[in-house]
Automatic annotation (TrEMBL):
EC number, UniProt record: 4.1.2.4
Keywords, ordered alphabetically: Cytoplasm, Lyase, Schiff base
GO biological processes: 2-deoxyribose 1-phosphate catabolic process; carbohydrate catabolic process; deoxyribonucleotide catabolic process
Biological or metabolic pathway of the protein: Carbohydrate degradation; 2-deoxy-D-ribose 1-phosphate degradation; D-glyceraldehyde 3-phosphate and acetaldehyde from 2-deoxy-alpha-D-ribose 1-phosphate: step 2/2
Record: active site: 95, 158, 188
Record bears the keyword Cytoplasm: yes
Catalytic activity: 2-deoxy-D-ribose 5-phosphate = D-glyceraldehyde 3-phosphate + acetaldehyde
Protein name per the record: Deoxyribose-phosphate aldolase
Main subcellular localisation: cytoplasm
Entry's localization field: Cytoplasm
Length: 230
């Protein structure tokens, strides 16, 4: 496992602090935002029904919202409407799920058109991240899904929803995704990133963003080892 060597405070700026449990309440989201500001994470990532949210104007915190989550089996029209509504309600970033079955069938033309529909509904400067559920795909399918995302205008490719039974992010998948998309597209490692060591390893493998639901515990891992910088 290669370590990026970043301090906890530096790692925090990679984190989308995530709360996507079905039972999450508006009070839970408000607490998430307060904790994210305290910890210095890059963003919070929430479900679309939680919008709009209240973020202090002076806070350096983005709001990400999932789309077509977690199955990816929504129609492109529904995903596009969901994304557009999220942007109207204050989302800075959209994390959409591809149709994983289409990828497994090799129908990457559909995968690309699905992503393109969301991109059209949520144009730049909204950041579009594309969840490919890498643990459910072969290496060749990961490459093809990432290529489709880039062709459709995505800003990021993302490993996982964190809800799929096959698992979450791996260093191998992150490195392959980085190799495929090149240096100008973001790579988000999400699903199972629970320790500061895992976070640093994902960054070293090529991740430029991390999806983390337990940010406080992850960042506290550095303090537990006596590290400075946080």
């Amino acid at each position: 496992m290669t370590d990026s060597g970043l301090t906890a405070a530096e790692v925090a700026r990679y984190i989308d602090f995530t709360l996507l449990k079905p039972e999450a309440t508006h009070a839970d989201v408000a607490a998430l935002i307060a904790e994210a500001i305290e910890l210095g994470t890059y963003s919070v990532c929430v479900s679309p029904s939680m919008l709009p949210v209240s973020v202090p104007l002076e806070a350096d915190l983005k709001v990400a919202v999932v789309c077509g989550f977690p199955s990816g089996k929504h129609s492109s029209t529904v995903k596009a409407v969901e994304a557009a509504e999220a942007v109207r309600n204050g989302a800075d970033e959209i994390d959409m799920v591809i149709d994983i079955g289409a990828a497994k069938e090799g129908d990457f033309a559909y995968v690309e058109s699905d992503i393109a529909a969301v991109r059209a509904a949520a144009p730049s400067p909204t950041v579009l991240k594309v969840i490919i559920e890498s643990s459910a795909l072969t290496d060749d399918e990961i490459v093809a899904a990432c290529t489709a995302a880039v062709s459709a205008g995505a800003d990021f490719v993302k490993t996982s929803t964190g809800f799929h039974p096959t698992g979450g992010a791996t260093e191998h998948a992150v490195a392959l995704m980085r190799e495929t998309v090149g240096p100008s597209i973001g790579v988000k490692a999400s699903g199972g990133v629970r320790t500061i060591e895992q976070a640093r390893a994902m960054i070293a493998a090529g991740a430029t963003r991390l999806g983390v639901s337990g940010a406080r515990a992850l960042l506290a891992g550095a303090a537990a080892t006596g590290e400075s910088g946080y």
